[in-house]
């Protein structure tokens, strides 16, 4: 595990973005160009394998050749101190998979015209890659990022851009296929029949996978219920895909035709190029009338939302609490954190003292949590000046937890107080003053009366 602050060549690691099957992805800063980047570091057991190293370098070179607005760019790749890594463009946005999971929780569906535009953009990217001799082999919602734009790329498109990422599994078409790895290079529900049945694959396999994503966005369901390799083999050999309009009657006929052609079991019946798919998607989207748009909205139990105006935010992946919130005199404030995800997470914790007057052992601390791990961070606080006498003073402080990278809106700070209690209470101080005054008065009286008392004793 690489910790924030560590450096790989000129890339400073800032935090964990997520975990993949081949490695961990970190948010980092290019110290030379001062720009944010994503650094994917391969798992140690893979990085130590000479055969994997060679395959990785071949795939990284293939990905680095790709230069398209809807493909996440590869800036650099290399080896250092036993690490094998690839440096990529950092896209400020969520994956389409994250959006789908968020929408499912609140029973919402994306507007059809936005779906068609985003999938057409992804098809453009795949078509370009195929022309460069590169196939993706793992097209799925989690590998399609959605980025908000200031203005649309094309007239009539929403101000969004789909960006295909993780060409780390891609292979040059002229490279001899690894038949044993064929079934592993993909995610079961999105894999083409030829991937599942261990047959030769080409760019049309990516077209099928993108068709699965389109089917899921348009109907809210996957075309086949696949949860295991055995189930995938049976489904692709013996089951027919339900027509989209039988699942969601509001899907326009033209859109259904595009989906079914993309999902044709036989590759010769499928779109032969991703550009053809993109063109038909735009044609279907441009032909949508008000009646079809209204029908799509009415024939579903889900609410129709726009990703432009209501981009769902990711669910908080870290939960935290603070105890105790009230310290008397001095003490340790403990922040408890829980990582609810299946990937490592990191967070920075800071302490603020609005009124000052407090000493804190460290203004900022960092914590890294493994999947499902609980952790704690302690802050020691005490008043800078401990009052000897007088009133009780209340010194407030605020602890803020900031996940890196930020996940949704930052939560409110957790407020606490340090009660600075004087060593001598106010009432006791007043009593001592009164007693001192009384004692002084008695002493003065005694001294003034001493001659008179002396005469009385002498007489």
From TrEMBL:
Protein kinase domain mapped to chain residues: 11-282
Protein name: non-specific serine/threonine protein kinase
Membrane-traversing stretches: 426-453
An annotated Gene Ontology molecular function: ATP binding
Residue sites binding ATP per the record: 40
Alphabetically ordered keywords of this record: ATP-binding, Kinase, Membrane, Nucleotide-binding, Transferase, Transmembrane, Transmembrane helix
Documented EC number(s): 2.7.11.1
InterPro entries: Kinase-like_dom_sf, Prot_kinase_dom, Protein_kinase_ATP_BS, Ser/Thr_kinase_AS
């Amino acid at each position: 595990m690489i910790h924030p602050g560590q450096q790989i060549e000129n890339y400073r690691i800032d935090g964990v973005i997520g975990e993949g099957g081949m490695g961990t992805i970190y948010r980092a800063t290019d110290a030379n160009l001062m720009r944010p980047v994503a650094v994917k570091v391969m798992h140690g057991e893979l990085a130590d394998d000479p055969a994997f190293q060679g395959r990785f370098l071949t795939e990284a070179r293939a990905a680095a050749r790709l230069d398209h607005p809807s493909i996440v760019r590869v800036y650099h790749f290399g080896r250092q101190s036993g690490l094998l890594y690839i440096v990529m463009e950092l896209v400020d946005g969520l994956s389409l998979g994250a959006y789908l999971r968020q929408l499912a929780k609140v029973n919402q569906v994306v507007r059809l015209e936005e779906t068609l535009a985003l999938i057409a953009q992804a098809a453009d990217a795949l078509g370009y890659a195929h022309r460069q001799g590169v196939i993706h082999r793992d097209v799925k919602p989690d590998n399609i990022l959605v980025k908000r734009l200031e203005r649309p790329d094309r007239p009539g498109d929403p101000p969004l851009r789909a960006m295909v990422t993780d060409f780390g599994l891609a292979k040059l078409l002229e490279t001899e296929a690894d038949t044993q790895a064929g079934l592993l290079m993909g995610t079961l529900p999105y894999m083409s029949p030829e991937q599942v049945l261990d047959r030769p694959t080409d760019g049309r396999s990516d077209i099928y996978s993108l068709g699965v994503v389109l089917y899921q966005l348009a109907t809210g369901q996957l075309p086949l219920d696949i949860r295991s390799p055995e189930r995938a083999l049976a489904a692709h050999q013996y089951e027919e895909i339900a027509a989209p309009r039988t699942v969601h009657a509001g899907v326009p006929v033209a859109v259904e035709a595009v989906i079914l052609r993309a999902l044709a079991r036989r590759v010769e019946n499928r779109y032969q190029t991703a550009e053809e798919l993109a063109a038909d998607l735009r044609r279907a989207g441009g032909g949508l009338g008000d009646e079809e748009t209204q029908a799509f909205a009415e024939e579903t139990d889900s609410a129709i939302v726009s990703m432009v105006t209501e981009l769902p935010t990711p669910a908080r992946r870290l939960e935290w609490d603070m105890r105790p919130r009230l310290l008397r005199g001095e003490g340790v404030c403990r922040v408890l954190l829980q990582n609810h995800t299946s990937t490592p997470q990191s967070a920075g914790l800071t302490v603020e003292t609005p009124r000052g007057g407090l000493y804190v052992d460290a203004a900022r601390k960092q914590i890294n949590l493994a999947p499902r791990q609980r952790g704690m961070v302690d802050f020691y606080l005490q008043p800078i000046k401990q009052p000897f006498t007088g009133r009780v003073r209340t010194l407030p402080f605020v602890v803020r937890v900031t996940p890196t990278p930020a996940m949704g809106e930052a939560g409110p700070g957790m407020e606490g107080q340090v009660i600075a209690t004087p060593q001598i209470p106010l009432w006791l101080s007043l009593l001592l003053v009164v007693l001192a005054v009384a004692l002084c008065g008695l002493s003065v009286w005694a001294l003034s009366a001493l001659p008179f008392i002396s005469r009385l004793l002498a007489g």
